[in-house]
Amino acid sequence: MVSQARVIISTIGPYSKYGTPVVDACVRFGTDYVDITGETPWIRKMIDAYHTEAKNKGIIIVPSCGFDSVPSDLTALVAANHLYSTLPSHPPTKSVKLSVVRMAGGVSGGTLNSIAGLMDEGANKMVEMATDPYYLNDAAGE
After folding, report:
1. Does the residue 17 lie in any domain?
2. In this structure, is residue 135 part of a structural domain?
3. Region class of 16: left (phi > 0), else alpha (psi between -120 and 50), else beta
4. How far apart are CA 3 and CA 18, in angstroms?
5. In this predicted model, what pLDDT tens digit does every residue of 103-133 receive, in sequence order?
6. Structure pTM?
7. 3-state DSSP call for residue 9?
8. Which is nearest to 78 in space by CA: 96, 90, 94?
């Protein structure tokens, strides 16, 4: 299936359990990949294992394109663009902080399994991930 597709969009977790073979197949067959994971340690493993080869082949891998990421990413972009358009001489925006006051909806079974998987990573990994703003940068800093 991966070899016949241009893009694979994966919405089923836990990604640490089911995602790696899909990313691997995408890189092998030259297929772009998008998912909605919130499993940061797994994303780090995918970067370490596949970033260089995917980049060399021109394959795009986009993790965390779901509810966990999109609102904060779009808010940061809109805030930075607004600041630049109102104050063009303002230095580039270095950070934007987003606070969610209220949210509706539930938690899926996949999300619950992903949370359980994150707990298996251990407290040290969770602290490293939460305190290192460059945790997901690739080794070359690209």
Report:
1. yes
2. no
3. alpha
4. 18
5. 777 777 777 777 777 777 666 767 777 778 7
6. 0.72
7. strand
8. 96
